[in-house]
Write a structure and sequence with these properties.
Number of strands: 3
Order of helices and strands: HHEEHHHHEH
Largest sheet: 3 strands, mixed
Length: about 150
């Protein structure tokens, strides 16, 4: 799938990059991410300005999970339009009442049926449930590499 769901284990909530760097450092990271993507979503090439918001893209953290050693490692940043970002953070989207947007974006970008999307969502939450049973070591060493490239 081109557009995937990325649910952070509940035991790692609030330990994202923004919680580990200062506001000025986060601003440098996110603005670099936006510029590298030419202010377009790196998944669907759309802009938030076409989706009714005042900004083109949002910076999303890409994580790799070692399910054996329970290490969550930052491996990149990606610029996403707000609608693709809502899919990535489907748990928040459920809370905020954005599921119609999630279904529409997930089915459109991946060219799948709503039934297939629902099955994929269920599978993603099963992975999340399994990962949420463990405490994760969070590795954000990638930030230094990203800022120096």
């Amino acid at each position: 799938m081109k557009l995937t769901i990325e649910l952070v284990p509940s035991t790692s909530w609030y330990t994202n990059v923004r919680s580990k760097v200062s506001r000025p450092e986060w601003d440098i990271i996110r603005r670099k991410c936006y510029k590298e993507a030419d202010y377009k979503c790196e998944i669907c090439a759309d802009s938030g300005k076409n989706q009714g918001v005042n900004w083109p893209v949002e910076c999303h953290e890409i994580w790799k999970y070692n399910d054996t050693n329970h290490i969550q490692t930052l491996i990149g940043f990606i610029a996403l339009c707000p609608n693709c970002h809502k899919v990535k953070h489907i748990g928040l989207s459920q809370i905020k009442g954005w599921m119609d947007i999630v279904y529409t974006q997930l089915t459109k970008i991946n060219n799948i049926s709503k039934d297939t999307a629902l099955k994929y969502i269920d599978e993603s939450f099963e992975v999340w449930k399994s990962r949420s049973q463990y405490e994760w070591e969070v590795n954000i060493n990638y930030i230094t590499k990203y800022l120096n490239k």
